């Protein structure tokens, strides 16, 4: 009888123990399939020299060797922390999802700025009809004529060089600290492609058009970053990026669809972002509710 009781107890308890082991929750990992993430941050950018071509009624000319810089936002905390000015500077915003372990797709928006360098010398080539420009007195035909950019009489800038891109990336975890991996260091590398939307300001021949928006071209880029994760759900990520941008049709005059600029150039970018992680799929492949 005694042996029968022991046998019955073992029969009842063993399946429960095995079931508990099989449903033991696996730890949440930021690069696991089913992880949703997003971030927001600020950037700085640098541009290679280019040849900018301008076309319009009575003129067609180019500026070879044009240099440009970004127009970074002030580091004054009063401006950085002001929600009304959150979109005034150069910033990045991105949302993504891990489709497989280590691999994610994301869609984001990098707002850069492009400002033609004041006082820079360019080589001026082209043709301007008589009377088109009575301010800088550019008139007739030019071939590689050295010209100094004077922003009081000529200016070209993108107050928004907006890069809307799709990115495919891989993440790897390198270091973890804490009994529950409260602090984790990961790397993120990826490639991106997307379109350019330009908010352009153009001052020429005494007339200035400001913040004229147009879909202006395409870009391709590569990205590498370091992500420092806190308590499974928050992170700080810094990225280095580089690529090629091609603006094939930047509108320069609001009342003339045939007035535009085009150019191609390389760029580099550094950005730092604050982000979040959400684990929206079950961790045990058991088709139960998500683990947040």
In short:
By secondary structure, this protein is mainly β.
How would you describe what is shown here?
This protein is mostly beta strands and 292 residues long. The protein has a single domain (31-279), classed as Beta Barrel (Porin). The protein is 9% helix and 61% strand. It has two helices and 13 strands. The protein has helices spanning 2-22, 77-80; strands at residues 35-47, 50-56, 59-66, 68-69, 91-100, 103-116, 121-128, 140-148, 155-177, 183-204, 207-230, 234-251, 260-279. The longest helix has 21 residues, at 2-22. It is elongated, with a radius of gyration of 28 Å. The two termini are 49 Å apart. The model is unreliable at 6-24 and 284-289 (pLDDT under 50).
How far the N terminus sits from the C terminus, by CA atoms, comes to 49 Å
Rg from Cα: 28 Å
Strand residues, percent: over 45%
Number of helices: 2
Shape summary: elongated
CATH class: Mainly Beta
CATH architecture: Beta Barrel
Number of domains: 1
Q: Mean pLDDT across all residues, rounded?
A: 85
Output the structural class: mainly beta
Strand line-up in the sheet with most strands: 1-5-6-9-10-11-12-13
User: Which regions have little confidence, pLDDT < 50, spanning 5+ residues?
Assistant: 6-24, 284-289
CATH topology: Porin
Quaternary arrangement of the chains shown?
single chain
Question: Which percent bin holds the helix content?
Answer: under 10%
Largest sheet: 8 strands, antiparallel, barrel
How many β strands by DSSP? 13
The helix-strand sequence is: HEEEEHEEEEEEEEE
């Amino acid at each position: 009888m005694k042996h029968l009781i022991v046998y019955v107890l073992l029969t009842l308890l063993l399946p429960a123990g095995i079931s508990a082991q099989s449903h033991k929750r696996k730890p949440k990992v930021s690069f696991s399939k089913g992880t949703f993430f997003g971030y927001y941050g600020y950037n700085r950018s640098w541009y290679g020299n280019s040849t900018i071509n301008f076309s319009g009624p009575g003129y067609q000319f180019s500026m070879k060797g044009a240099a440009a810089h970004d127009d970074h936002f002030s580091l004054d905390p009063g401006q950085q922390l002001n929600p009304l000015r959150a979109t005034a500077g150069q910033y990045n915003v991105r949302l993504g999802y891990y489709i497989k372990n280590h691999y994610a797709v994301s869609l984001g928006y990098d707002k850069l700025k492009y400002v033609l360098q004041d006082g820079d010398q360019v080589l001026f080539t082209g043709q301007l009809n008589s009377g088109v420009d009575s301010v800088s007195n550019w008139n007739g035909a030019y071939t590689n004529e050295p010209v100094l950019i004077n922003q009081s009489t000529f200016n070209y800038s993108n107050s928004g060089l907006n890069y809307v891109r799709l990115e495919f990336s891989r993440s790897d975890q390198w270091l973890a600290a804490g009994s529950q991996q409260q602090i984790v260091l990961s790397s993120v590398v990826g490639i991106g492609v997307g379109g350019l939307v330009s908010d352009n300001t153009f001052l020429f021949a005494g007339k200035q058009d400001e913040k004229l928006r147009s879909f202006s071209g395409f870009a391709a880029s590569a990205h590498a970053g370091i992500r420092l994760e806190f308590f499974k759900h928050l992170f700080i990520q810094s990225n280095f990026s580089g690529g090629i941008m091609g603006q094939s049709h930047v509108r320069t005059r609001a009342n003339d669809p045939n007035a535009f600029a085009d150019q191609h150039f390389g760029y580099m970018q550094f950005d730092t972002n604050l982000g979040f992680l959400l684990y929206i799929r079950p961790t045990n492949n058991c088709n139960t509710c998500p683990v947040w």
